[in-house]
Design goal:
The protein contains 1 helix and 7 strands, in the order H-E-E-E-E-E-E-E. With 140 residues, the chain is mostly beta strands.
Length: 140
Amino acid sequence: MNNLTRNVIASPFDDLFHGFFVRPVEFGNSPETPAIKLDIKTQDNNYLIHAELPGMKKEDIHVNIDGSVVSISAERRQEKEIKEGERVLRTERYFGKVSRSFDLGTDVDETKAVAKYNDGVLELTLPKKTATANKRLQIQ
């Protein structure tokens, strides 16, 4: 049996890049970056949706319904300034927009839809459109 041996001279850069490309790298995700987390439940005649939008004002939240597709978007503007006497020690700003769209599979009756926002949770009650009976045409 042949024994193969290989002499490898270790480079100081080997440890530097070892495993660098193995882990996913996320850019731009800070703890303050908002994200929309959803709970979607279905009942006989309605969809119940809870969307977490902490720190948002209800004036900055928009819900659009197009058939069975629901889109939720929100924009957050936050400014924080800390003063000590007349000197400004720190000023921080955050501006961000989040959106999420999803397909419910059944058209929604947008005329009867209800949206409530309380304590950072958007609650949507979206009635399902009643299916119309197929009309059979008479051929003449």
